[in-house]
Amino acid sequence: MNDGGRLAPVAGAGDDTVSGFQAQLVQAARDRAGSWDAAAEVLAAPAERTVERLRSGEIATAWRLAARWLEADADLFTADLMSLDVYARAARRRDPADDLSALREDHTAHLAPAGDLADAARQVAELCRREADAWATGDAPAARGLRADERTHLDEHLVPALPDAAASLAAHAETRVGRTLGRLLLAILSVETGTDYTREGDQ
Hints:
By secondary structure, this protein is an all-alpha fold. 70% of the residues lie in helices and 0% in strands. It has helices spanning 18-43, 48-56, 58-66, 75-89, 96-110, 117-136, 140-158, 162-172, 176-193.
């Protein structure tokens, strides 16, 4: 991240050689896996470890790194990631137990009714990792097949419920961090599907 809070580009993004392009595909798939890992952590029922990672800034860092492959489009995440930075910097003034309780209340009210979306997000992350491995070994047909599998899994297991659940969190969570996380979930889904779900969080 640079001094303005923007995401630094992925190294080698300007390389127009075949090997450079392959490296970009590998990194993009790995970054997308990291993005869905972070989403799964948010979608799961909050635990003490989740609170620790939010308070330390680890989740914000994970999402920031996961958005590198978007280059200029990563600005979609910048404001909300900076909001998570503020949440982390102010953590010393809050009791971790209070943070956990607040996150659990928001999760129960807005995400839990949609079912186990965390497991679906983890499965997308695993498919992304397998895609990265396929690109790394030069198996383009397998990589493309896995990319198609990712989209199918999204359409079947996340698109039916995640937009409404994340929009509810983004618009109506009691905590500011809950609303921020809801917007980040909508941003990830928008990037992955090509449908702008971020507007739903503004309603």
